[in-house]
Amino acid sequence: MRGYFGTPQYASRLRLALFNFVGSGILADHYPNLITENNMFRRTFITLATVSTMATAAFAGGHGPKDIVDTAVAAGNFTTLVAAVEAAGLVDALKAEGPMTVFAPTDEAFAALPEGTIETLLKPENKDQLVNILTYHVLAGKVMAGDISGKALEVQMLNGSTAKVDATSGATIGSANIVVTDIETSNGVIHVIDAVLIPSE
Q: Where do the domains of the chain lie, and which CATH numbers do they carry?
């Protein structure tokens, strides 16, 4: 199957990298990535897949694929996400070999947060909270749209919290819509979302 929801080995490797770069033990526990899955197989993601094909070409800029961070920088509409990744000390981890899947909120998604939220999260004293939120957007392994088409499931993100993914009618993760899929990078894949995911834990 093209792409997968990650293995414990990949999850452990990514959590270890994050632990080393961030200096926080919140990702040190070992846990399986895929939690549960139902057996619905209705077709979905067709429109998104078409859009993502064009988006991938635009992001690549005619050259070989960049890593996740460089792809986000080149896109131009993830400036807040990139700034948050830098403030959290996660740049090197997200440029690591992977593979990994990132659900990337746009600048508009961050702008929709309550006033002052971004500024508060970017303060050094709130670094652990920022890391927790950002790693809630990362999944071990390279998960393509076709891997979850027609399915509803719960997955465990790199911060240890679970997120609900529903691709039975459109595509969502948590409260966010997945608006562009399958932007392939050299170390994984990016799916664009229209809201910031906030872990409940």
A: 8-193 (2.30.180.10)
